[in-house]
Amino acid sequence: MMLNCLIIDDEPIARKLLQEYIEETDFLTLMGTAENPLKATGLINKHDVDLIFLDVNMPKMSGLDFLRSANNLPMVIMTTAYGQYALDGFEMSVIDYLVKPFSLERFLKATQKALELHTLKQKAVQPEKNAGYFYVKCDGKIEKVVYDDLIYIEAMANYVTLYTASNKLVVYLTIKGILEKLPPEKFIQVHKSHIVNIDKIKTIEGNMLHLGDKKITLSTSFYDEVMDKILKGRYLKR
Description:
- 32% of the residues lie in helices and 32% in strands.
- The chain contains seven helices and 15 strands.
- The strands form four sheets. The protein has a five-stranded parallel β-sheet with strand order 2-1-3-4-5, with helices on both faces. A five-stranded antiparallel β-sheet has the order 10-9-8-12-11.
- It is elongated and about 65 Å long.
């Protein structure tokens, strides 16, 4: 499982060190950096951020003021040269508090804690594997979606559209969020904006997947993983 990260820090040297540490950590992906919380708001809304590395003393808005004013933030690890703010941070449910300068070992300990918490949260909302269906809210109604009926999913900003043979449901979810809740043996992401039901793939033609009358592009970045998952143990050739 990967955590998408964002750095909010006004010091270039501090941002550079965090970027290096993130690159050294195999379960972290850096989605962007910002010099202050005001510039970070757009990045948080644009990307599916799981974890923020947040400085305390910054111009225009401090890290603590940002925590007090924002709603539904991702997990936060505070990074600052001032240890006296630790209690304030923990009272606002930050994951950990790193006092600069901190080592890679201390960084890894904090991020591992974030990964474990994220994993527990995902397990808590994971549908029963053998249920064969899940529910979503669409147009003020709660709709049942059967896995075997779901053909593909298309992302549109902060929404996804679920396509079945008889229906189309627009749901307020991200593609990353819904992918984590689908059974991986049945569904796979084939493009930054598409998830498909593996059983519905009828033909593979170059980088095009045919799902009945629908054609979906198989992205180059997903190609090897998708082809291996679709064909593994099933591809008969001379």
